[in-house]
């Protein structure tokens, strides 16, 4: 269903200023068209019939903030999304990561964790899992709690299994999870080397050095200036010869850090040099 | 009530943005229309089609082969330029920004579709106002009708493919039943209609 048309642009600016000032979450550099849809959608979901009602709730009810963040950020993700991307990770990137004694991977904007578990499966199959650490971060603590459980809807498993096979996986995908009534719970051996933590790409800085950073379909929600800021954080966080993986319609091409990177084949994977 | 869209930088004032939405049976129409679009024109065309979510899709290349004007598959934050044809990528919603670029979005499907025609029409209405033109082609889904209504509400122009010429007439017929459509166009007349926008 299409969201209603309730909020005006200047009202959105006002609300975002409030949220930044009161709570320290700054959405002012998010892509405005998409954010406007999310904010109009929250009016529908939480039954605000005017800007004033929405603003009153956001400003006066601190307990509403987490829900607000959860609703205005997009948390649509899947396992092995874009199998050809994972195929290149599997065939070209994993063998090179294997040369390091300790592999650090950052999944930035991991949402409910589907990509983190996909990477964990690649690491297992490359026999690198035991010497890897995966940092899965998101702005939103609620999705991180979900990610940590490793529980995903059962009705997605057929699609994920097909993606897995197309990414070059040779195992029976169902060996990685046990099923319940309508869910699949992934093997806890896949999450034991995952560290879940909140991190806000808008305001937080680099926190470690990594050989691989994945940030897929996150930057599309940011304007160009914010994208540039995030690219700089990634650049500071990447080991020399480390890899950066983006979503299929995202690019490093217009960024100032691009000259330090070389694209790996046709996929949205860049290697620092 | 008419609402006015706000003007944007990056394109000259008055550039008409034609957003074409289509589903089943609309690729043939595009192949019939695009070769006749004149180069160096003042309009911009953005195509939003329901299609399979394959990132390796060759539709952009296919359409390019038929076209005298460049056909570009949209990547995030690509600027809109006049005289060019843009194609929404599979599995992303397409949105317009006030600074004249396009954003992509992987949020929930709308009308079981991503890209959703409604989402693109809706966004075009808000950003381009009376410079937005929505054209709905053949299809079996009702995606696009609500978006067309939005374009009309913001002062834009709404058109549909003549249902008599559509492989699947449900989509344009829905629009005709529910809305006051300004132009009902056969495929052979669509390119002429778009080219004529140069004169206005």
Automatic annotation (TrEMBL), chain A:
Origin superkingdom: Bacteria
Record flagged with keyword Methyltransferase: yes
SUPFAM superfamilies: Chemotaxis receptor methyltransferase CheR, N-terminal domain, S-adenosyl-L-methionine-dependent methyltransferases
Record SMART domains: MeTrc
Pfam families per the UniProt record, alphabetical: CheR, CheR_N
Keywords of the record: Methyltransferase, Transferase
Recorded GO MF terms: S-adenosylmethionine-dependent methyltransferase activity
GO biological process: methylation
PANTHER family for the chain: CHEMOTAXIS PROTEIN, CHEMOTAXIS PROTEIN METHYLTRANSFERASE
Protein name: CheR-type MCP methyltransferase
Automatic annotation (TrEMBL), chain B:
The protein's enzyme class: hydrolase
Keyword Hydrolase: yes
EC number: 3.1.1.61
This protein's UniProt keywords: Chemotaxis, Hydrolase
Gene source species: Sphingobacterium yanglingense
Xref: PROSITE patterns: CHEB (PS50122)
Pfam families: CheB_methylest
The UniProt record lists the keyword Magnesium: no
Gene Ontology cellular component terms for the protein in this record: cytoplasm
Residues of the CheB-type methylesterase domain: 11-200
Catalysis performed (reactions): [protein]-L-glutamate 5-O-methyl ester + H2O = L-glutamyl-[protein] + methanol + H(+)
Gene Ontology biological process terms from the UniProt entry: chemotaxis
Entries under SUPFAM superfamilies matching the protein: Methylesterase CheB, C-terminal domain
Residues annotated as the enzyme's active site: 23, 50, 143
Any one Gene Ontology molecular-function term assigned to this protein's record: phosphorelay response regulator activity
Protein name: protein-glutamate methylesterase
């Amino acid at each position: 269903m299409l969201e209603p048309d309730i909020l005006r642009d200047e009202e959105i600016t006002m609300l975002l200023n409030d949220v930044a000032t009161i709570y320290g979450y700054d959405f002012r550099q998010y892509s405005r068209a998409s954010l406007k849809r999310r904010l109009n959608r929250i009016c529908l979901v939480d039954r605000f019939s005017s800007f004033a009602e929405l603003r009153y709730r956001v400003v006066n009810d601190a307990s509403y903030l987490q829900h607000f963040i959860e609703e205005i950020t997009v948390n649509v993700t899947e396992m092995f999304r874009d199998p050809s991307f994972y195929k290149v990770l599997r065939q070209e990137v994993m063998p090179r990561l294997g040369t390091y004694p300790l592999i650090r991977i950052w999944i930035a904007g991991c949402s409910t964790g589907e990509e983190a578990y996909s990477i964990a499966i690649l690491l297992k199959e490359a026999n690198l899992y035991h010497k890897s650490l995966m940092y899965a971060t998101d702005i939103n603590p609620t999705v991180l709690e979900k990610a940590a459980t490793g529980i995903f809807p059962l009705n997605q498993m057929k699609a994920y299994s097909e993606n897995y096979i197309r990414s070059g996986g040779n195992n029976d995908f169902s060996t990685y999870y046990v099923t319940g009534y309508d869910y699949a719970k992934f093997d806890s051996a896949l999450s034991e080397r995952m560290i879940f933590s909140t991190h806000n790409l808008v305001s937080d800085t680099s926190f470690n050095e990594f050989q691989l950073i994945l940030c897929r379909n996150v930057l599309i929600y940011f304007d160009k200036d914010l994208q540039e800021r995030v690219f700089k954080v990634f650049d500071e966080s990447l080991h020399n010869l480390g890899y950066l993986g983006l979503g299929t319609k995202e690019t490093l091409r217009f960024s100032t850090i691009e000259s330090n990177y070389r694209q790996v084949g046709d996929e949205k994977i860049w290697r620092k040099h | 009530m008419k609402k006015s869209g706000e003007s944007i930088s990056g394109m000259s004032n008055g550039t008409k943005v034609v957003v074409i939405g289509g589903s089943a049976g609309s690729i043939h129409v595009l192949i019939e229309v695009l070769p006749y679009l004149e180069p160096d024109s003042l309009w911009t065309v953005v195509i939003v089609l329901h299609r399979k979510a394959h990132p390796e899709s060759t539709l952009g290349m296919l359409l390019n082969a038929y076209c005298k004007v460049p056909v570009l598959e949209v990547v995030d934050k690509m600027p809109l330029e006049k005289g060019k044809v843009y194609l929404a990528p599979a599995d992303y919603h397409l949105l317009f920004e006030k600074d004249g670029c396009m954003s992509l979005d992987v949020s929930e499907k709308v009308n079981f579709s991503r890209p959703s025609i409604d989402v693109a029409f809706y966004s075009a209405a808000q950003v381009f106002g009376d410079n937005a033109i929505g054209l709905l082609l053949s299809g079996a889904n009702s995606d696009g009708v609500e978006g067309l209504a939005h374009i009309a509400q913001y002062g834009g122009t709404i058109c549909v493919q003549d249902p008599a010429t559509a492989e699947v007439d449900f989509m344009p017929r829905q629009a005709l039943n529910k809305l006051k459509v300004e132009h009902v166009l056969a495929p052979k007349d669509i390119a002429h209609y778009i080219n004529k926008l140069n004169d206005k």
